[in-house]
């Protein structure tokens, strides 16, 4: 008697093409996704790790604390003598907590370079006791683990201007993979749905089945956060993504541009205490903040000359989402503008928060733990996916 062959229902057009796209994109960008996910996961707890490693230089000795710190210009001169660099000091970060040290930064980029190590001419962080002028620690951030991890994650150590597209394009394809993965995961009925929500390995003996479940189930649970990670990542890379967010949140295609503020004091001779005047006013207006940053070389992050002194105030330590800005005249130190976080539109608020959302710090330590776990799953997906393809390929050869 001949056995009856039960014919399986053919997959729908959507699932068929979802499977093909998922496979093709996975094989083509799997390695890049693995590298980007791994470096991003390792970067999540940067602040917590560095705060432990550098706690001897982050905090000043209690017996050295006085009522008034040394002038910023005096500290700047002391800092300039220590590393003896040909580049000027870029900025200083001043904490509002008295027992934390000042952080002076040297940062200079070469626009003609093609890779990370050539592009970053200098990236040194110097911790200074603001009451005595003592140099507590000098760190060459250019060769530190976390900036290198960030550069790999951002541009695979290529020049940041175009290396971001080398990473950005695979991330866009990864978003498509996440969507097609959810379509492939989606069960036909409640019975099959239960087996796709958690592991049932009591009667499972083959590694192929376990690997399939790892890829299928963990991928499903991490997919929402993975989408958030990917979208917040390409927000940095592509202007059109930023513009789309801006349009959605505030109804304008672009973020408001910074307007030049002219002051009659700009014709006066420069006051040597201009930075101290700005620091004093900042502490007065935002006493509950965590820290604030003052540019000292008269240039912004892109290397363009600043017409005034913009002071960025951070509300919480280790977070950049809630930030305020004060604008001072660079000659007299007179306050020209006050831009509190509350007066920003939704698109501007999101622009400030995007980094925190990307690394998980926006949701505190709990968010970082969840982001770290999701990052581990994203790192594993190219591996388990490749093993799935390899197992099917070998099975096909045997047949």
Report on the structure:
The protein is an alpha+beta fold. Among the domains are: 47-155, no CATH class; 264-344, Nuclear Transport Factor 2, Chain: A, CATH 3.10.450. It is 51% helix and 13% strand. An 8-stranded antiparallel sheet has the order 4-3-2-1-5-6-7-8. The longest helix has 35 residues, at 364-398. The chain is elongated and about 85 Å long. The model has no long low-confidence stretch (mean pLDDT 89).
Characteristic key phrases:
alpha+beta; 399 residues; Nuclear Transport Factor 2, Chain: A; 51% helix
Secondary structure layout:
Blueprint: H1 13-43, H2 46-53, H3 55-58, H4 72-81, E1 91-95, E2 102-109, H5 116-119, E3 120-128, E4 135-140, H6 145-155, H7 160-185, H8 190-195, H9 207-237, H10 239-250, H11 274-285, E5 291-295, E6 309-314, E7 323-328, E8 335-339, H12 346-359, H13 364-398
Antiparallel strand pairs: 1-2, 1-5, 2-3, 3-4, 5-6, 6-7, 7-8
Helix pairs in contact: 1-6, 1-7, 1-13, 6-7, 7-9, 9-10, 9-12, 9-13, 10-12
Unreliable stretches: none
Structural class: alpha+beta
Strand content: 5-15%
The global form is elongated
Q: Distance N terminus to C terminus?
A: 25 Å
Average the pLDDT over all residues and give the rounded result.
89
């Amino acid at each position: 008697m001949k056995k009856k062959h039960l014919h399986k229902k053919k997959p729908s057009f959507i699932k068929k093409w979802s499977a093909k796209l998922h496979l093709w994109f996975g094989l083509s960008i799997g390695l890049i996704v693995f590298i980007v996910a791994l470096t991003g996961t390792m970067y999540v707890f940067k602040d917590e790790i560095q705060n432990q490693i550098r706690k001897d230089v982050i905090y000043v000795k209690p017996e050295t604390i006085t009522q008034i710190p040394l002038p910023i210009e005096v500290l700047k001169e002391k800092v300039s003598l220590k590393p003896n660099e040909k580049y000027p000091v870029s900025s200083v970060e001043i904490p509002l907590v008295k027992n934390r040290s000042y952080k002076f930064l040297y940062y200079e980029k070469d626009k003609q370079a093609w890779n990370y190590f050539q592009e970053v001419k200098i990236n040194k962080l110097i911790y200074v006791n603001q009451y005595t002028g003592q140099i507590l620690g000098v760190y060459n951030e250019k060769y530190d683990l976390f900036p290198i991890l960030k550069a790999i994650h951002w541009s695979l150590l290529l020049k940041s201007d175009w290396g971001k597209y080398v990473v950005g394009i695979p991330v866009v394809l990864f978003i498509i993979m996440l969507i097609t993965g959810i379509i492939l995961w989606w069960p036909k009925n409640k019975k099959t749905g239960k087996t796709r929500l958690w592991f049932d390995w009591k009667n499972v003996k083959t590694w192929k089945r376990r690997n399939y479940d790892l890829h299928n189930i963990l991928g499903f649970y991490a997919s929402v956060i993975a989408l958030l990670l990917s979208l917040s990542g390409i927000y940095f890379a592509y202007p059109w993504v930023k513009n789309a967010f801006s349009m959605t949140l505030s109804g304008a295609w672009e973020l408001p541009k910074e307007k030049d503020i002219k002051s009659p004091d700009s014709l006066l001779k420069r006051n040597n205490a201009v930075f101290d005047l700005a620091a004093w006013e900042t502490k007065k207006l935002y006493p509950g903040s965590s820290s604030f940053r003052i540019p000292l070389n008269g240039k912004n992050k892109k290397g363009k000359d600043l017409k005034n002194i913009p002071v960025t105030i951070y509300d919480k330590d280790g977070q950049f989402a809630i930030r305020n800005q004060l604008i001072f005249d660079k000659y007299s130190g007179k306050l020209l503008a006050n831009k509190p976080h509350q007066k920003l539109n939704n698109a501007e608020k999101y622009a400030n928060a995007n980094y925190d959302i990307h690394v998980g710090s926006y949701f505190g330590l709990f968010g970082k733990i969840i982001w770290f776990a999701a990052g581990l799953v994203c790192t594993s997906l190219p591996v388990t996916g490749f093993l799935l393809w390899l197992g099917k390929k070998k099975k096909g050869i045997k047949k």
